[in-house]
Amino acid sequence: MAMIQDIDFQDRSGFSLAQEHESLLISCLKQAAAGIAPHGYELSVCIVSEDEIADLNEQYRGKAGPTDVLSFPMNEIDARGVAILGDIVINPYQAQLQAGEYGHSFERELVYLGIHSLLHLVGYDHENETDKEKMREMERHLMASLGISR
User: Fold this and answer.
1) Disulfide-capable partner of 113 in 54, 69, 97, 128 (CB 3.0 to 4.6 Å)?
2) How far is it, in rounded angstroms, from Cα 37 to Cα 121?
3) What's this model's pTM, rounded to 2 decimal places?
4) Which residues fall within 8 angstroms of residue 54, CB to CB, at 6 or more apart?
């Protein structure tokens, strides 16, 4: 049986994400997910507008306004043994703003948000300092393994 490694990608943001940005994000997520779910995985990535992410942020987190990225973990194994990781929702407008604020490229910020969200899908969190440091260390490790630095 072939190993399934699938990312369903949608851009409904109106941002007009460049093809090279989409390709980079998908490639980096595939590399990272392959190490996290070695027996195969499926996940979805959706690039959305400020309004859509603000609605999702309010509905699922009870927080007003847009955010940069949201994660919706499923954390299931289907009958084929494939990990159904969940959904990543990215706001490219906030990613662009944050890239400028942090002094790095839009590409780096986009990949970082994807990696950050992927880690949430597999159980990492940053609710306390210990968990936050574990997650940050894994983010640094994955970003370095992808060859992406600040």
Assistant:
1) 69
2) 11
3) 0.93
4) 64, 65, 66, 67
Whether 120 and 73 have beta carbons less than 8 Å apart is answered as yes
pLDDT, residue 137, reads 96
Q: What's the longest Cα–Cα distance across the chain?
A: 46
Residues 107-128: tens digit of each pLDDT: 999 999 999 999 999 999 999 9
Is-contact 74 39, C-beta < 8 A?
A: no
Residue 134 buriedness (CB in 10 A; 0-12 / 13-18 / 19+): middle
Q: In whole angstroms, what separates CA 17 from the centre of its chain?
A: 15
Q: Name the pairing type of β-strands 69-77 and 5-11.
A: unpaired
For the chain, give the number of residues: 150
- What are the φ and ψ backbone dihedral angles of 48, each rounded to 5 degrees? -130, 170
Looking only at the bridges linking them, the beta strands covering 83-90 and 69-77 are antiparallel
- For residue 57 the two structure tokens come to 């942020």
Q: For residues 7 and 44, is the Cβ–Cβ distance under 8 A?
A: yes
